Amino acid sequence: xxxxxxxxxxxxxxxxxxxxxxxxxxxxxxxxxxxxxxxxxxxxxxxxxxxxxxxxxxxxxxxxxxxxxxxxxxxxxxxxxxxxxxxxxxxxxxxxxxxxxxxxxxxxxxxxxxxxxxxxxxxxxxxxxxxxxxxxxxxxxxxxxxxxxxxxxxxxxxxxxxxxxxxxxxxxxxxxxxxxxxxxxxxxxxxxxxxxxxxxxxxxxxxxxxxxxxxxxxxxxxxxxxxxxxxxxxxxxxxxxxxxxxxxxxxxxxxxxxxxxxxxxxxxxxxxxxxxxxxxxxxxxxxxxxxxxxxxxxxxxxxxxxxxxxxxxxxxxxxxxxxxxxxxxxxxxxxxxxxxxxxxxxxxxxxxxxxxxxxxxxxxxxxxxxxxxxxxxxxxxxxxxxxxxxxxxxxxxxxxxxxxxxxxxxxxxxxxxxxxxxxxxxxxxxxxxxxxxxxxxxxxxxxxxxxxxxxxxxxxxxx
Length: 463
Known about the structure:
Elements: H1 3-12, H2 20-23, E1 33-40, E2 46-51, E3 54-60, E4 66-71, E5 77-83, E6 86-92, E7 97-103, H3 107-110, E8 112-116, H4 118-138, H5 146-170, H6 176-205, H7 235-254, H8 261-272, H9 276-294, H10 301-310, H11 314-328, E9 340-343, E10 348-350, H12 351-355, E11 360-365, H13 372-385, E12 390-395, E13 412-414, E14 431-435, E15 441-446, H14 453-462
Parallel strand pairs: 1-7, 11-12, 12-13
Antiparallel strand pairs: 1-4, 2-3, 2-5, 5-6, 7-8, 9-10, 9-13, 11-14, 14-15
Helix pairs in contact: 4-6, 5-6, 6-7, 7-8, 8-9, 8-10, 9-10
């Protein structure tokens, strides 16, 4: 354990005796997995444990801000837990008893693991903190010539190799799967910088084309994989994966072959990813990200058609088709479809009464595809910047009768499955509609997560 981690451990480590109350009453600890801990200055009353995008458990804090859970059949692998707006990863194996301690005022820096399985997780969080520091330290190197930049990256990879070997000596019985993940955590962020470098260097030097690179510049690709779909949400792998995909796109652009950027992205995914399940996941993510970043109902049909050609997932294709159909409804210049909503006193209200003579932002959301923390922070920020606009939140989906507690309930509503609004929400994905004082649609498929929403709201407010 490094001196930094040892210091953290001494300061924040949970004694197993502190949490004895929630594990000692179980007589079958050898067969069970435990996950729990204590949170100082909690931001909510619970912790959510995820496996990739799927929430597998919500664990509530008691009056002492302690939480605990027992699992009898939790497979070995990488999970992540979320508390308030923050999240972090945890690697769990059967028979682990992993306890965490953290202070939300300094979430990542204060996080320490103890108990059975702590060593590997303290190693992961230690590397994560190192990477965050290295990002800042490494940024000036992007102005170096390619051969010099490669030397800097290679030196860092050598250091990571030594770090891996030190960990293995201290923990010789660590599982093979974790060791593979640990290698990814150490090395892939550096691989990502190598992929990103040519485009950054071109922009910094104001060049007309990408720089010429040494023959061995991308030799790391022999050790890297684009087929690890189970880690697509893991920061260390995700950065490399998408930087690698976009590296090919940048080459296409540089050669003047990129007639349509998102189509080229989809083609790059098809070219570089052979594992069918992984390819389908990132094709869908790429297309949806593009649509929401554009924040407009002017749909790029070529991108949709190319997605349908490349994806083999029938369920994904059906959802994307519904999304395409939704985008064609509510045309710019037309009146908003008439439908009723319910406030959280269960009173029924007509949408046209809510927007009458008001420039309005109507955002439809459900908590399957958008987090309450992101929504509340974004809406409060937008309301502060545009106090003259009328913001109306409409929740839909299976959990529609619970409102977002992060901002004023008076501007929040919900719809039922029988609402006419579902005719343009068939994909179940979020969308935002901008209307003028006459109820005419200015933008039928705006996006709260897009950078473009800020200028779009300014234009709505001015015109």
